[in-house]
Write a structure and sequence with these properties.
heterodimer, A: mainly alpha, 0% strand, globular, B: mainly alpha
Amino acid sequence: MILLELFFVYLQIGAFSFGGGYAAMPLIQTLVVQQKGWLTMAEYADLTTIAEMTPGPIAVNSATFVGQKMAGLPGALVCTLGCVLPSILIVLLLAWLYTKYRDLNVVKNILGQLRPAVVAMIAGAGLTIILFAFFGTSTLSEISLSSIRWVELGLYIVSLILIRKFKWGPIKIIFSTAIVGTLIYMVL
Amino acid sequence: MKEEKKVSMVKLFFSMLTISAFTFGGGFVIIGMMRKKFCDELHWVTDDEVLDMTAIAQSAPGALAVNSSVIFGYRIAGLKGAILSAVATVIPPIVIISIVAMIYSSFATNVMIKTALQVMRAGVGAIITDVVLDLGKNIFQSKNLVNIVLMFAAFIASWFFGVSSIALILIFIALGLVKTVVERKGALL
């Protein structure tokens, strides 16, 4: 019974969180914390911290967190399934339509027109992360040049050279910056 | 041929699994990683397809990471590829969160973990910069001045004015429709 309930709550979270993590958070808070009482506010705050410190989308992370707490591993699996099922079905439909109709003139034009916007969105996400790395915040008004973290700036430049000139892969870059950066901070 | 397909399914699964396990920083970072792996390294998809699929993934509800893995998987290996990719993408969060939830207090207060997560952003930022440089170069090389201007306009709208991705996608779909109508008229005349 609880498994079914978990499944349907996460089905809703998966189906109605347009726009990624920032859309999913209020939905999780309303459904899981306020309506169902499956998490206390303190646990919800822990969840947010954990989600920020681990890879993986926040909705999927919260599915495991809540499911595990309420019903162990089966709970985690059921919540995760509910959370990703709407995505999978809708994206499959769109993917099928894309494969079938992408050579149509109108579809070509629309997709071609979307490309600059997509590059801009990826660039925006990148700039946010870079500002966070360099200044510890991405809010422009809070940024001052004197608070720049030189270690991160150095790691960024070296990483970029390693990627572009020496063709290092992303995983190698992430691990190396984590290890080298932590060592530098421990020494400093 | 069949043999080749089998090899690529295993490769697809483990590529998705690794990308999901090590990608800190959200959905667009995942897309950058997928582009590096499946476009640069394995040549299974083209740059244009990456952008098309990103727009589509962004148009559906749910996490961008899951959505993009489903559509990349579908494009690379059909329905089987899509489901395989979705499974590969959710396994790391399930495992990692299960473990972290058990050791939460020592995990969240560990100084070394905190530092590592903080400095890691420099590397992630460099990866995204690389992807944006490549993708932006394509837009510039198309020599389509309108698209170049629109790219900067979209960046300013989303980053400085907080226009949501959904709104941006709808606006650009409308622009694409207008373009089609205008072009068709041109052809008729």
